[in-house]
Amino acid sequence: MGCRLKVFLTKEEKLTLEELRKAKDVPQRTKDRAQVLLLNTRGLKNEQIAKGLNWAISTVRQTLHRWEKMGLAGLWDAPGRGGKPRYSESDLVYLENCLAQESETYNSKQLAKKLASERQVNLSADRLRRVLKKRGKRCGSVHTQTQEQQRIS
User: Fold this and answer.
1) If we measure between CA atoms, which residue out of 109, 110, 96, 111 comes closest to residue 143?
2) What is the C-alpha radius of gyration for the chain, rounded to an integer number of angstroms?
C-alpha cells in the first residue's frame, strides 16, 4: 500500500470548503469532495472516509490528488459531462409552428415521425411528449386550444 496523502488547508481554504458544504446552489458531488478534504484534514484515513461516504477508496484518493493538482477548481465536474440533447430549440419551435398552423392535430407518435422525416431528429414519442409538456404545449390539443382562442377574439 502506498503512502497516505495528507492535505494541509489554510484557514481561508477550510472556511471556503465549509461554506461549499452548506451552499444550496452547489452540486452534491462538489459538496462531497469538499467533505473528503475536510475529513482528511481532521486526520481520518482514506479507508474511513470512503466507508463514511460509501465511496471507493480510489475515489477518495482521486479527490485528494485533484485538490493537490487543481485546487478549488478540482472539486467541480469538468464541463461536457452527461448526454447531449438530441434536438435543438429550432426543432421544438418547428413542431410548435406545425401544431399552431396546420389544420391537422397530431399525437406524439405522429409528431415524432414528422420530426424524424423532416428534420432527421430521432426522439421517442414519450420523450417528445414530456419535452412539449415542459414547454406548456400538449400534443393533439394545441390546435384545439388555438381555435378556441381565435373564436373568443
Assistant:
1) 96
2) 25
pLDDT tens digits along 81-99: 777 778 888 888 888 888 8
Calpha distance 55→44 (Å, rounded): 14
The grid coordinates of residue 118 equal 423532416
Distance CA 102, CA 114 (A): 13
Find out whether 94 and 106 touch, Cβ atoms under 8 Å: no
User: CA 105 → CA 38, 137, 146, distances in Å?
Assistant: 58, 13, 11
What's the pLDDT tens digit per position in 24-67? 999 999 999 999 999 999 999 999 999 999 999 999 999 999 99
Please, are residues 102 and 90 in contact by the beta-carbon 8 Å criterion? Answer: no
Task: Count CB neighbours of 139 within 10 A.
Answer: 21
The CA–CA distances, whole Å, from 58 to 46, 61, 81, 82, 119 equal 9, 5, 20, 22, 45
* DSSP 8-state symbol, 45: -
Mean pLDDT across the stretch 117-135? 88
For the beta carbon of residue 102, count every other beta carbon within 10 angstroms.
11
pTM greater than the 0.90 cutoff = no
For the chain, count helices (H), then strands (E): 8, 0
